[in-house]
Amino acid sequence: MLRRLALTAVVSLAALAAAVPASTATASGSLGPTPAAVPTSGPLAAARPALGPLPMPMPLPLPGFLDGGDGAGPGEALTRLTVSVENTGVAGADGTFELECGPTGGSHPRGQAACDRLAEAGATRSGRQELFRPTPEGTMCTMIHGGDAFARIVGTWEGRAVDTTASRRDGCEIARWNSLVPVLPDVR
Question: Disulfide: which of 76, 139, 153, 164 matches 72 by Cβ 3.0-4.6 Å?
């Protein structure tokens, strides 16, 4: 819908720019001189306006969300995260992994699945707001210990800075960890 609105605005401006010169032209059979707001004396008397069509405005590139692009420049990943995980108890899950999305790359063991999960969360407003947000202070959480696993995620996601930690110390943190799988390893 935004794309349609932007394109409608561009077409309207182009039509307006083409119509303005037509409205300022004089008819070939006009009677008498056409009055003009041109100074006849003084320093501006030599400056005469050029009659004719107005120049068409240069088309500007549309923002990424309007032209279907991802908003990243050439060779630039929109999402670039460093995921450090420890004490999971799962073979191969501990370590520091690089994750790049748009295109998928890095050393993350489940890179494409992790990028798909981030894209899924980024497609909704609540997902963009909640995905990396820590559990608010004072939240009532079940006292279920999910293990000693700990992770830190640092970098950029959809162009926004990310610096967060996750653990499995209580029910809220377990749910938060699980919402980040497969960016984080599944340790259930």
Answer: 76
Q: What is the pLDDT of residue 179?
A: 93
CA distance 162 to 77: 15
Can you tell me the distance from the alpha carbon of 163 to that of 67, in angstroms, rounded to the nearest whole number? 30
Nearest to 164 by CA among 155, 174, 153, 150: 153
- Position 114: which residue type? A
Distance in angstroms (rounded) separating the CA atoms of residues 110 and 83: 12
C-alpha torsion 159→99→125→179, nearest 10: -150
Residue owning tokens 């969300």: 65
Listed residue (122, 123, 32, 45) closest to 81, CA to CA? 122
Blockwise average pLDDT, block size 10, the chain, 188 residues: 57 57 48 55 61 60 49 61 94 94 92 94 80 91 95 93 94 94 92
Three-state DSSP state, 34 = coil
H/E run at residue 116: helix 111-122
- Token pair, residue 1, equals 């819908």
Q: Chain-centre distance of CA 76, in angstroms? A: 13
**CA 130 to mean position of chain CA atoms:** 17
**3-state DSSP call for residue 162?**
strand
Interatomic CA distance for residues 145 and 9, integer angstroms: 56
pLDDT score at 124: 82
